[in-house]
Specification:
This protein is an alpha/beta fold. It has a single domain (20-349), classed as TIM Barrel (Alpha-Beta Barrel). The protein is 37% helix and 14% strand. The chain has a five-stranded mixed β-sheet with strand order 1-2-11-10-9, covered by helices on one side. It has a four-stranded parallel β-sheet with strand order 3-4-7-8.
């Protein structure tokens, strides 16, 4: 499939706060004007599926009363059931910070419809990023060499091989309940900004593929060097050669970490598009909270830019996941519902 996009697109001008950060009230009013897609994915004329959702259903800015969840919907079970009545998928972000457990995945499976799917973000140690020692499971923490156990944070490369293997084992074992009920969408391997192009880095991706076995996964890169003019086709060719789904993104442009908004389906099985917002002023700034980094409400025109691209993607992949990661308050849920409504209208119009 040919790639399209604008690799050298300049960042958009700074928008007025009332446009892209209007607050939960105006975002709620926008959401009220569209119907959420519901737990059934959109089935395309060629038999493919398009799922819409967000990168969290438990963010503190989202769970405040009246932001997204109705009054009285306050327990973990009630929130997931409500969310799963509105969307057909969700991305789990908590698994990046703490290794998940089987019991938690069993609850997720029990509380959602048969049509619902979970994408699970890989733990930090699995993608070359640091993890807090205190958040590791007790058996793993107790097995750390003294020099590592005394640190605040560690990297996967610091671990003895057998403990690094155990990190992968714990993570994949936790997903068994979702796999058994066919509710696992894919594992997201999101590599950091310092993960630069090169043979050794590609070998790390292939090592992850071997460790995954038959567990579906996708890969998101976060450095523009992978997509410089001479590198882009090589990068995407690598993904196609090894049948690895490349995660397409919408994010701020013009920065060293900016990945261009390419449309590139590199595996016919799954395609993922993640929307991070376009806040260029906070994208690479240190000390910014996650909520502020992604605090961006897309306007109708920005969502419309992606409508034909999503349809193009759906012509080349059996399943498409459209994920809003602008999870400040109800911005993500609002945009997910709006974009789903837009895509549904396009298909109804033929």
């Amino acid at each position: 499939m040919p790639q399209s996009g604008a690799p050298n697109r300049k960042p958009p001008p700074n928008a007025e706060p009332t446009v892209h950060d209007p607050g939960p009230g105006p975002a709620h009013a926008r959401a009220e004007r569209v119907s959420p897609p519901g737990p059934e994915p959109l089935r395309t004329p060629n038999g493919g599926l398009i799922r819409f959702g967000t990168a969290s259903w438990t963010d503190p800015t989202l769970t405040r009363g009246g932001i997204f969840y109705p009054k009285g919907v306050s327990s973990a079970e009630e929130r997931l059931k409500y969310y799963a009545s509105r969307f057909s998928m969700v991305e789990v972000d908590a698994s990046y910070y703490a290794l998940p457990a089987r019991g938690t995945a069993e609850l997720w499976s029990d509380r959602t419809p048969d049509t619902f799917r979970f994408d699970i973000k890989a733990h930090a140690l699995m993608t070359g990023q640091p993890s807090e020692v205190a958040r590791l499971p007790a058996p793993l923490r107790d097995a750390l060499p003294a020099a590592l156990a005394s640190r605040t944070r560690i990297y996967g490369k610091d671990l003895p091989p057998e403990l690094y293997d155990e990190v992968w084992h714990i993570f994949l074992d936790a997903l068994v309940p979702l796999r058994e009920t066919d509710k696992l969408g894919a594992v997201l391997l999101q590599y950091p900004r310092w993960f630069l192009p090169g043979h050794d880095r590609r070998e790390l991706i292939l090592d992850a593929q071997r460790r995954m076995g038959d567990v579906p996964f996708t890969v998101e890169l976060r450095n523009a060097l992978w997509f410089e003019s001479r590198s882009a086709e090589s990068t995407l060719g690598f993904f196609r050669e090894h049948d690895i789904p490349f995660v397409m993104v919408d994010e701020p442009q013009g920065l060293p970490s900016s990945v261009p908004p390419l449309v590139a389906v590199t595996s016919p099985r799954t395609a993922v598009i993640r929307f991070h917002g376009r806040r260029a002023d906070t994208w690479e700034r240190t000390g910014v909270s996650v909520a502020d980094k992604f605090r961006y409400l897309y306007d109708a025109g920005e969502l419309a830019e992606w409508a034909p691209r999503i349809r193009e993607v759906a012509e080349h992949a059996r399943e498409v996941h459209v994920i809003m990661n602008n999870c400040y308050a109800n911005y993500g849920t609002t945009n997910a519902a709006e974009l789903a409504a837009l895509i549904h209208r396009i298909y109804r119009a033929g």
